[in-house]
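Recap for those who missed Tuesday's class. We walked through two folding examples back to back. For each one, the amino acid string is listed first and its predicted structure tokens come directly after. Nothing is annotated here on purpose, so try labeling regions yourself before you check the end of the notes.
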Amino acid sequence: MAKVAFIGLGVMGYPMAGHLVAKGGHAVTVYNRSADKAARWVAQHGGRAAATPREAAEGQDVVMACVGNDDDLRQVTLGPDGAFAGMAAGTVFVDHTTASAEVARELAAAAAAGGFAAIDAPVSGGQAGAENGILTVMCGGEPDVFARVAPVIAAYARACTLMGPAGAGQLAKMVNQICIAGLVQGLAEGLHFAKKAGLDTDKLVATISKGAAQSWQMENRHKTMVAGEFDFGFAVDWMRKDLAIVLAEARRNGASLPVTALVDQFYAEVQAMGGRRWDTSSLIARLER
């Protein structure tokens, strides 16, 4: 059993922190900007709620965070009330936020200066993966530090891999989002074409999903895409945030991402249609306007 703080109880963090108690058997302290949500989590799972990230981090073995973006991450870690101000030498900070590789390296350096360590550990699997405790976690940091925290992360992960030094986890998550963006656009166009051609989409997918076209998105989203239902997890607003990080990193490292940039603009069109909170499979909606 470890003493763990979890900062950020959004749609991902809330169930992840719950698994730390229910599956991991850890003693968990939570912090959330909305104190009501933290109180609700404690009522459901036990543990305690802290008034600040610093208070949550004090006396812990591991401090975890899952917040919105780079700025949110700096806000909960740095400064007099940030988690880093409460962390003792030898402890580990694990960041599950999807953020930039730049901020991951910045926080790793700040942690080292404070005598503790940091791991960037963005996740894939969406809200359902968090609720079911089957996330995929991509990590950046030192091997010995990763070995210490991997058993804790296992409470909500089915796969947890060290990808390289600080920032490598965030870079791996960027690749994940690049692949998803192109794949969903391809699936949207395929289903749109099938409908225009008068094909039975259920029969079609049952056939082609047994071959090279198969994907998780095809298996799990084709019915809802055809039905025009887009209330199933990862929102367009979040994807555009992630793709902005991807495209900024590509400008730095010289990667050519023409399809990713195009799909990002397609998501902007979905936002303009009122689909900011629709899930990412809503790319088909812009084809059927």
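Example two. Treat it independently of the first, because the proteins are unrelated.
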Amino acid sequence: MGNYRRVRVGIVGASGYGGVQLVRLLIDHPDVEVVYMGGDSTTGKKFADIYPHLAHAINLTVEKVDPEVIAERCEVVFLSVPNGLACQMAPILLAKGCKVLDLSADYRFTNLSTYSAWYGKERSDNETASKAVYGLPELYRERIAEAQLVGCPGCYPTASLLALSPLLKQGLIVPETAIIDAKSGTSGGGREAKVNMLLAEADNSIAAYAVAKHRHTPEIEQICSELAGHEVTVQFTPHLVPMVRGILSTVYANLRDPGLVRDDLITIYRAFYRNSPWIKICDADTYPQTKWACGSNLCYIGIEVDTRTGRIIVMSVIDNLIKGQAGQAVQCMNLMMGWDETLGLPKLGFYP
């Protein structure tokens, strides 16, 4: 007991919504200590001035982002930064021996030309990117445990892929028929001021956006293709709903075997996720609500089969800031460090 030492952790981009979730989770984590917070627009500010409700819990100042300094001080680094910045820092941090978890899109793609096409940034860090592991533990637990660099999935892909994975892995659907209808709360757009996120704009309204061109589409298709064993395209349409937290992803697809009924699929899903503590498969006739997952790292999945059309309907809900962002990153860190993947993460949501 006398030799016990907590792992030193740093957060770059601590002042955003993803960053403050990381702070909250890591403060309660028994095996880590937050020793560094970095940011550009908030450099020099006390974190307690940015988030006064955490003044009693953490006494750190946001520092200039310097990968050399970060590497000297930290063993694990979370990069909660805009797309295109993590790829500038990660190679330096990795060379210094840090474990890196990227919450942006920079290290989610096996093919950097796909990243460049959708995110408009040319990359030259192919060697680093080739070592990255996609951070969805329910699919890649063993790879994450061996990784030094993890590209944590986006919130929409997390909810959608958890709904689709058993169907694709076991060949239960015609992959090309998959349609994803997803809805997110406003916190998914980050903390930066945006007109469409104003209360007067977003309240009492619901609207689709980035139709047929959302950046999470190729990320979803990459994993779907790997699971199916051939290239797969999906139809993905996101919507903004007037709530703060949560994602509901409703997936439709044609079943290969029209004889499969709902109870069969529930049994298949429970077997597929039997070793996944954060996935909860709902009973028959129970359809999940975003409020159930709010504040937790849980994903609730409900299943229905329409025997009239031969389609399966899968409903997946998560908290976009926890399982869809910071919580999943902490879950990945636990695996990278050889700890129980549930360590330090909230097992129950806020309700009502």
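Answers for example two:
The mean pLDDT is 95.
Residues 131 and 287 are 38 Å apart (CA to CA).
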